[in-house]
Amino acid sequence: MCLFDSFHESYCGDVIRNQKHYIAIGELKGGIDPAGADEHWKTVRTALERIHKGFVSYTPATFFIGAAIEKKMATEIWELLEDGTISNAANLTNEDQVSSISMWLCSL
Hints:
alpha/beta, globular
């Protein structure tokens, strides 16, 4: 998921190519099977690493929203939040967390 500072069809390509237009980038994993949660998390971690490596002048806010979050994953997510690697996270099955991250995205 990408949140841009603007969007218009006539300059869509410029917005996507120019890093300064990115406000936030996140991953949404909606699968609810706990057995696949670790595999989803590995994909998310790889994507977040690519984001941080791919942005040269600055890094946009990053976030993760997942439906199946296992205890080990939750610990890792919390550590990433604490050290600033990711800016926000939410459990898709928790209404308060979805509301919170939605308000956060709107505030950016």
